[in-house]
Design brief:
CATH class of the largest domain: Alpha Beta
Number of helices: 12
Helix content: 25-40%
Largest sheet: 5 strands, antiparallel
Shape: globular
Distance between the termini: 47 Å
Strand order of the largest sheet: 4-5-10-6-7
């Protein structure tokens, strides 16, 4: 199929893009990598009257390390750029793990971090790690900027808190504590596919291997990706053992609302949430101990 007719714009600055969004609002769609928008337009699931192509805005692609060890990542940064960044490889290897597991080289060179996040598909790979890393998103409009916490950003299937006049410009990731490990795992039918179930875990330990901080992001378990809050509370402040990880993984299913589709039943997703969460927690624990 072919998309419906639309008017195309290719702004070269953020201000130009924001002015277009202010003018056309809900009738416009942002084109970043195009990996999600173009297929949905071809299927007529999205029928925008105006397409605003932001790929020619160079100031939206960057990776900068803050003085405190945190990261600022431009929304147009590609998966390949993220995975090949020495800063990301050194400080936040979980993001490298996610990026390298996304599709083919062509997809990794075209797809953008901001586009993946704003698509807000609960099966999108970068969303659970953003939740686990406590990321924040900078949204800009012609009226100013605001910061939105990742825990509040996603509120329904394909829906975020971004207003029609706003553009995601930057992803901010806070610094990690010493002895922190992270892992992202997903269950797929084939390598590079969307997740049937996914889990991202970021854990820090003290010198006695007590869990100092823990964040668990789950994907494909409901209309949005979500935090496994009960599992986190159960782990926090305890000495990490295999038994503790097993018990906390059972709690990861509390509050999830998986659906059934051609890929898996809701019951299967529920059971696999326990398995994938357990594996992610074990891997994060091993890395926090410095064994990998």
């Amino acid at each position: 199929m072919r998309p419906a007719k639309f008017e195309y714009f290719d702004p070269h600055t953020i201000d130009e893009a924001l002015n277009l969004l202010e003018t056309y609002g809900e009738e416009a769609k942002i084109l970043a990598g195009g990996l999600s928008l173009v297929p949905t337009m071809k299927l007529r699931l999205a029928v925008p009257r105006y397409v605003i192509d932001i790929t020619r805005i160079p100031t939206l692609s960057y990776i900068v390390e803050n003085n405190d060890g945190g990261l600022r990542i431009g929304a147009l940064t590609t998966y390949y750029t993220l995975a090949s960044s020495p800063i990301v490889q050194s400080k936040f290897p979980i993001l490298v793990e996610v990026a390298n597991g996304l599709g083919s080289p062509q997809i990794r060179n075209r797809g953008t971090l901001g586009g993946n996040i704003c698509h807000a598909d609960p099966a999108c790979d970068f969303v659970p790690p953003m939740l686990a890393l406590n990321a924040e998103f900078k949204a800009a409009s012609s009226k100013g900027e605001r910061i939105i916490k990742s825990s509040n950003f996603f509120f329904d299937f394909f829906k975020t808190l971004l207003k029609p006049s706003e553009l995601l410009t930057e992803i901010r990731i806070p610094p990690l504590l010493p002895k922190t490990g992270g892992a992202y795992l997903k269950l797929t039918q084939r390598s590079g596919d969307f997740a049937i179930v996914s889990a991202a875990a970021v854990m820090s330990l003290d010198q006695k291997e007590v869990c100092k901080t823990i964040s668990i992001g789950l994907g494909s378990v409901g209309p949005t990706a979500m935090r496994a809050e009960q599992a986190e509370k159960f782990l926090l402040g305890k000495t990490v053992t295999d038994k503790l990880i097993e018990e906390s993984s059972e709690l990861a299913t509390k509050g999830i609302k998986p659906s059934s589709d051609i890929h898996a039943s809701a019951e299967y997703r529920t059971e696999m949430t326990k398995v994938i969460t357990k594996r992610a927690l074990k891997e994060a624990f091993i890395r926090a101990r410095g064994e990998k």
